[in-house]
Amino acid sequence: MISEWFSRFRFFLRRDILTRRRTSELDDELQFHVEQSTAVKMAQGMTLEEARRSALIEFGGVEQARERCQEQEPGWWIDALIQDVRYGLRGFRRSKAFAVSAVLTLALAIGATTAVFSVVDRILFRALPYTDAGQLVSVGITVASQPEEFMTGRFYLDWQANHKPFAEIAAQGDTPHPCDLVENNPAELQCVTFQAGMLPMLGVSPALGRNFLPEEDEPHGPPVVMISYALWQGHYGGDRQIIGRQINIDENLARVVCVLPQGFQFPTLEAADIVKPMALDPALQNKVNGGFGDTMLTFARLKPGVSLAEAQAEMQPVSDPEMAWLPERMRNLTRLSIRSLRAREIGDARRMAWILLGAVAAVLLIACANVGGLMVARGAARQRELAVRAALGASRWRLARQGLTEALLLALAGAAAGLALAEGLLRVFVAMAPAGVPFLGKAHLDLRIAAFTVLLSLACGVVFGLTTALHRPDGLMATVRSTLSRKHVRLRRGLVMAQIAASVVLLAGAALLLRSFQRIEEQRLGFATHSLMTAQIALPEFRYNTDAKWMEFHLQVEQAMRGVPGVTAVAFTDSVPPGGWQAKLRYSDLIVKGRPPTPPGFGGWIAWRLVTPGYFQALDIPVIRGRGFTDKDSTGNVPLVVLSRLAAARLFPGEDPTGKYSVRGPGGTWFTVSGVADDAKNGGLTSDEEPEIYFLRRDVADDWKDRRSVLVIRSALPEATMAGFLQGVVHNLDPTVPVEMEPMTETVNRLADRPRFETALLGFFALMGLAMAAVGIYGILAYLTSQRTQEIGVRMALGATRSNILGLIARDGLRMVSAGGAVGLAAALGLAHVLRALLYQTSAYDTLAFLAVPVVLCVAAGAAILLPAQAGMRVQPASALRNE
Amino acid sequence: MPTSTELLQGTLDLLILQTLATGPMHGWGVAQRIQQVSKDVLQIGQGSLYPALHRLEYKGWIRADWGNSENNRRAKFYSLTRTGKKRLETELEDWDRLSAAVALVLGRIPEASS
After folding, report:
1. Which of A116, A146, A197, B63 could be stapled to A170 by a disulfide with Cβ–Cβ 3.0 to 4.6 Å?
2. 3-state DSSP call for residue A444?
3. How far B97 CA sits from the closest chain A CA (Å)?
4. Cβ–Cβ pairs < 8 A, chains A and B
């Protein structure tokens, strides 16, 4: 094989000299044949003239014989290929517009498709990295406020004992939480707990060491841990002696028994560095956490052949008696849930991924139609050339081969540019993408899909290129100009209309998302984001190790900041709206003085915040009844709360609770209701407000037990100035403490990352599609206009005005636009419901969006129509007629 | 005028090899020889002859040398190479097997017809 290639290569190098010699030898040989034949015929009595003529006739086509002899030579196709390539390149140089637009179209299509597919591949198609991952499920119960299934120890014990449809079942103790590695080289890590059955159930074996033993997964078992591959490599330098070593986690010594494999995917996708045994204590599960037992997440492997529905049906009888234990009010809200692990890991990214994929498929179709249209146009423009070549003896195969080579050249150039574009786009995606798009960090260019798109666009080019190349070129075409290309024109019209229809669908989708995004941006948040800043002060806990020291520092900062000129209000809170973490408690945890308690259970949730008096002023949340907190309250000994309008309406419907009622929180303290504040957006940008309760954080060490503190400052001064002031204040108190500040507008902006990402992407694809469709319209009209130059000349000579000519050309374009647009709008209306889940307070049939689409289309199409029409108007009748 | 007979696929190669077995010959000679020997039944058109000669040359079964013809004109003479000779033997064996088999199928016993 190698030697064969080597000899071919050598042959290739000497090709020129050899070819020339061979050609002349071949000519000699064939010449000799004809001479011999002539001599024989002369011997039979013919004259020299006659003999030669007859010999040549008998011989047949000398050219053909030569070509066929040359084709016997090994590797002759290299020459032919080079010739085709040269010819093709020369052609491209002559029609640069064609070559550039074809390559650009291909590059855009290949780039966008490859980038999008690289992102969605793992979300939609790739199996999870576990053995036989299709059988893995996430099981548990869901409640209204907690749509992701979870499990509590009380139920889990029953499930473990009766896991009929499951071959294996194993639990993870809640989600990863911070923990400290205490040693000379300390580190803050993420810890999580697994049952011993977890790794075997996932079908994952350790990179080093062994899984937990059953006795290690019991209460008070020997302390052991697994460590992640990243921690092993990064912190321990990949030392194989790590197995068996004692490490100190949160002041507890534990022996490392296992290094998890590289790239191990935690079932919740939240990576941890340390895995401890869960050591579930069955004796405690009916007692702790209000009798529910420890909360955990459970995963299972279905027995072979058992479907999700069957598993659900089999587990229902196990779960029903458990549900009966719940208070009746909760029972309706609680459900048994079994879904594939994949569904849990991917979550709602799935819908977005499908929509992206659909959008990019539409772009790919438009691009293919564009390339097809370009090839048809080129084929039509070259009819004369092809006819001439055919007349000179080029076979149809030879012409087809030429077309094929050209399509290949275009595809290669397009692929190279497209891959570069894909790499860039992928980076943009990763940079732009909101948090929570799974596997985005692992996304890399998928060469398989790049190859697929190259092939697809190549196929478009070849199919449409060949239809014209194979269209029997006959002698007539060398002389006749336009009449015979009618078929091509019809084909191109169809392609252009398809492009318009597809781009209208994309435009409609983008318009809907844009409307929804606009609603998100313009909605009333319930507090003023401008001139509002939040700051995190990273106070080291080991030096400020008592509640009093902690409070002292924060109160000093608050006091100092209030004195800064230009600052309107300052407050400390444990969390800030409108999104992000916030504390929640159950209604049943709240007891109103003088009323029977709500029965215990999950119930509804109520958000709460722990704030210093300046909070309402700082966020500009109006207090609508009673009063907010004052500085005097901070030093007083009456604990106070302010309710949000929603919370007040729920707890005290139709009443003004101000001053009249007290509520008791889980801590046992009674708080007097001092006022009602207006609702503020607190459950993220796209969900409704949750009821909220504000507790006053007084100047009492106990109120600072929870260390979470965010400083909120209202000031018209620029953020940089304010950050300087704050740094100065903190530095005065403790020079080692770092401060981080962010304007609230940025925080809110980040929350809109996801809809912004979706809108931007779909908008980008829609514009791309529209641009290509416009190029398509322009292309065909410009072609038709140039073909009709003579006709236009005649019309003008006969008295047609410029506006007549404009109408003539524009009418044709408008017909395509309206037909394609109508089909596209119908399809868009049919498909709009797909987007419903992504839309916020926007109907899938939003009138404005669907009115905007035709307008945008008309503007783009108008430009594409006007350019060739103008060219038509500029035709000088005299010169147009003289030309022929 | 004898009717030209369609040559069985691959038979032309065999005819050329067999003809060249008698000694070096140029293209014209090969065509003439086949026509003579077959009593004008087989007429090899140059359109297939020369491509076949070139194909055999590239396969290394025959060799080409430039020499002088009977009328002292420069011509290309083809001769069998050693691999060509071996090839001819196997091709002949194949041919015998094939023609015997065809004769059997057609219901003609070779001994009776020859």
Report:
1. A197
2. coil
3. 29
4. 50
